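Posting here for the record, re: adenosine-5'-diphosphate.
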Amino acid sequence: MKTYKVLTINPGSTSTKIALFENETCLYSKNVAHDASELAKYNKISDQLPYRRNMILDLLEEADISLEDVDVFVGRGGGLLACQGGTYLVSDLMYEHARNMQNGVIHPASLGPQLAKDFADQYGKQAMVVNPPDVDELQDLARMTGIKGVNRIIHLHSLNLKETAIRHSKNVLHKKYEETNLIVCHIGGGISVSAHREGKMIDGFDIVMGEGPMAPTRCGSIAVADVLNYMKQNQYTVDDIKPLLTKSGGFVSHLGISDAKELTKRASEGDSYAKMVWNTMIYQIEKCIGSMAAVLHGKVDGILLGGGMVYSEDLVQQIRQTCSFIAPVFAYPGEFEMEAMAAGAIRVLNGEEKLKEYTGKLCWNGFEWDK
Ligand SMILES: Nc1ncnc2c1ncn2[C@@H]1O[C@H](COP(=O)(O)OP(=O)(O)O)[C@@H](O)[C@H]1O
Ligand SMILES: CCCC(=O)OP(=O)(O)O
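Prediction output follows.
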């Protein structure tokens, strides 16, 4: 089989991760944490592009890696209009949508397609994006809300959720992803809880719209009336409170920190507030898992937990105790995002999967009665 070299690029809110793969084998990886004051210098996310690009180039030079040898550049997606799952070519249109954050979500993941395409163009290669957070495979029943014309379009940690589900289906259930029903969670800075039915994410809790459990940086679901009262009491505008959805909610709102390791340390040292915040977040994750079990009509082959907080034995043990009545709980601490990006590109290069074209049109565009 032909071998391919794939450079994967994952820009996060506080870090940039890069990894070089030869087919499935990781030859090099680096995770650089950014100083908050460095990133704060940039007004807009896209203004960070030259800084992140130069940092990547410096790292690769240090490691004696030449970009000329790379066959394909893959970036974590973001900023895109809702699309189906799969591996996409970074076209000029996708580049523009990522740069403008066309879906209105302000998150550095949108730098992924831009960095990948800039490098690819320079070296005459292709740039790709695999299962961006904008993948939306909701079933129709999961779309409607109680306000006419307000329908759900979802954002999830699709890259890690799908790769975890694909691996678990293959290695543990000895089946294809398309033959299994799974509840898959990513429990990191943001938290995804999602229902996968036969290879499609048919429902879940949005990670950037204030749904689902509270997370280190996110407020999660709150009664609408409570939010309206909170705004009225404090004379806040929509723009004042929006950061609670993705930046300053959850642990940050309660304790001013986003690091779960620090929070659990405080809890273990007797800080009862920190302990309550931790246990409440876990309780809310469990409630969400329960509702995804109902979405799957109780036919669940497994509950899979991924993300950084899954390194916590206490979190896994609590969820296992509460949710094992639904299905066995499996822990996959950390994430497979870099591996997932490489694997997605390799599947296309090997001809196992078709490279998709980003249409720039929503893959779901409302109910007929809303038009
Ligand atoms: N042993 C642990 N116990 C509790 N939290 C942990 C542990 N190890 C890592 N974490 C937490 O995981 C979070 C980061 O998760 P990660 O999935 O890397 O985040 P992101 O979604 O931002 O990529 C941090 O809050 C970190 O403190
Ligand atoms: C575009 C949203 C992606 C996201 O929320 O990722 P993190 O939880 O890693 O910040």
